Amino acid sequence: MGEAMTGVTGRMPVTAWQGSPRCGRPQSRCWNLCSILGTPFVTRRTAEGLLRRKDRAGLAIVASALAVANDNHADWIHTAIVDVFSIFSEDLDEALRLCEELSGDADDRVARGARRLHEGLAVIDPVLRPA
User: For the chain, how far is it from start to end, CA to CA, in angstroms?
Assistant: First the structure.
């Protein structure tokens, strides 16, 4: 990895490993944001970026991290969840639907985290709803 690929911590940022074939599997180490990105604030910003994708892959990565996150990291991940999904009701509804699908995932960590993510999403009251 070149200098441009590493951040302040010397670790690979999300954008560098995001396209890696390993990241297609929940059991790969890149799915655990909390262990790769040590500081809670970096975990929050990374979770926020993944959630802003608003797709199954981003939600699965965050769900997997949330399943094993300590209380401090979980609080920061929940802050990212609120930041991303508290604006548009359509985005929130789609995220809830995807979390329901992920809660039946074969990987226990993803399923457990998806249920926890769904609980966090369910309490959000979005600002903008369709007319």
Answer: 49
Helices and strands counted in the chain (H then E): 7, 0
Do 46 and 33 touch, CB atoms closer than 8 A?
A: yes
When the pLDDT of each residue in the chain is averaged and rounded to a whole number, the result is 80
13 phi/psi in degrees, rounded to 5: -75, 170
Give the pLDDT confidence score for residue 75 in this predicted structure. Answer: 92
In whole angstroms, give the CA distance from residue 125 to residue 41: 24
pLDDT digits (tens, 9 = 90+) for 49-108: 999 999 999 999 999 999 988 898 899 999 999 999 999 999 999 999 999 999 999 999
Give the start-end residues of each E strand in 28-108: none
Residue 92, CA atoms < 13 Å, CB-side half-sphere: 21
What's this model's pTM, rounded to 2 decimal places? 0.73
**Environment class of 89 (CB within 10 Å of its CB; exposed 0-12, middle 13-18, buried 19+):** middle
Bridge partner list, 88:
128
